[in-house]
Amino acid sequence: MLVLLRRWKNKSQLPITNYQLPITCSPFPILMINIAIFGAGRWGVHLIRNFHQHPNSKVVAIADSNPDRLQTAKKRFQLPDDIILTTDGSTIWNLPNIDAVAIATPAATHFALISAALEQGYHVFTEKPLTLSVTKSLELCELAQQKQLQLFVDHTYLFHPAVERGKTVIESGKLGELRYGYATRTHLEPVRQDVDALWDLAIHDIVILNSWLGEKPIQVKATGTVWLQPASGLSDLVIANLTYPSGFEAFLHLCWLNPDKQRRLAVVGSQGTLIFDELQSESPLTIQQGYFDVIDNSWKSAGINREVIEIEPREPLAQVCDNFLNSIQNHQPSPISSGWVGAELVNILCGLSESLKQGGQPIHLL
User: Fold this and answer.
1) How confident is the model at residue 30 (pLDDT cuts 50, 70, 90)?
2) Which residue of 23, 65, 265, 284 is most buried, as measured by CB atoms within 10 A?
3) Is the CB of residue 54 less than 8 Å from the CB of residue 31?
């Protein structure tokens, strides 16, 4: 049994989804937040762009072990000459006037970087997952609480307009009785060497399902197959199962060596199926309506119709960055993507990993 560890005597006082730090009022609003960014790779460049373009933040330093990536980022986004570019991330801690750091480095490095930043008094924005350990994730949440700093995890899908709209559709009851869900997330590279396909891909669909259902899994199962890196044992293909308190079950298909790229998630109800297909750019969110009528003791399909759900055209990551900056200015953790939310998701992934090690045995989460 995998248990989300807590150190507090009264657990009911700190529900992860509703936890708030004490408000520390400031007589003046923060007009500009100085940010240092760790990582200028595939995702780091998107953070550089968004924080550089935001009116309430200024990118003052970027650290990356690859000097070419630093120069490419500077040229691509026309960064000012006074910005500090360094291949030695430790130099960031000696810079003056930094308010926050954004971390876009491999997951195994997160704990050390986040803890160092919090100890320095910096707010932290980090790429998912928060860490690879439940205990370490909670330790960081506690440290941020102690320092009265914001710890924010970049779960971008929670800010995707299709995901936000999908939640309202499900809450409206339009799908009828919810029955089960499924998701497929496949592509041909990139292949990670620090985590398996489970840790790389599953968190996206889990965070969407949790948001749409308004609950978290109580039992998980996973099986995996290793082809590319047998020495490390990192699974290239993972099939996962999530069971929720309501009895709803979800099935995930995750693979990073499949040339058939898919980004599709569905929730099936008695009156229709809500489908989020990212690769359908013009209509990523649809409802495939349909149900059964009983005629002459047999089931006949009825009400077949496809409905496109209109969504507002917004860049999710821009909303993520804005939410982080607002959390700093309001002295309040994000109710959507705080460190506590990140720790809960790490707990689910750790349960799936344990099941993977045990050949698919069910793991109960508390």
Assistant:
1) low
2) 265
3) no
pLDDT at 6 over 50: no
Q: How many residues are given for the chain?
A: 366
* pLDDT for the residue 19: 28
Q: What is the dihedral of CA 104, 340, 349, 274, to 10 degrees?
A: -90
Residues 6+ apart with CB under 8 A from 146: none
> In order of start, what are the domains of the chain with their CATH numbers?
33-155 (3.40.50.720), 157-364 (3.30.360.10)
Round the average pLDDT of the chain to a whole number and report it: 91
Q: What is the pLDDT of residue 29?
A: 58
Cα 218 to Cα 366: distance, rounded to the nearest angstrom? 7
- Quick count: other Cβ atoms within 10 Å of Cβ 161? 17
3-state secondary structure the chain: CECCCCCCCCHHHCCCCCCCCCCCCCCCCCCCEEEEEECCCCCHHHHHHHHHHCCCEEEEEEECCCHHHHHHHHHHCCCCCCCEEECCHHHHHHCCCCCEEEECCCHHHHHHHHHHHHHCCCEEEEECCCCCCHHHHHHHHHHHHHHCCCEEEECHHHHCHHHHHHHHHHHCCCCCCEEEEEEEEEEECCCCCCCCHHHHHHHHHHHHHHHHHCCCCCEEEEEEECCCCCCCCCCCEEEEEEECCCCCEEEEEEECEEEEEEEEEEEEECCEEEEEECCCCCCCEEEEEEEEEEECCEEEEEEEEEEECCCCCCCHHHHHHHHHHHHHHHCCCCCCCEHHHHHHHHHHHHHHHHHHHCCCCCEEEC
Residue 292: per-residue pLDDT: 84
The label of the residue with tokens 């069910």 reads: 362
Count other C-beta atoms under 10 Å from residue 146's C-beta.
9
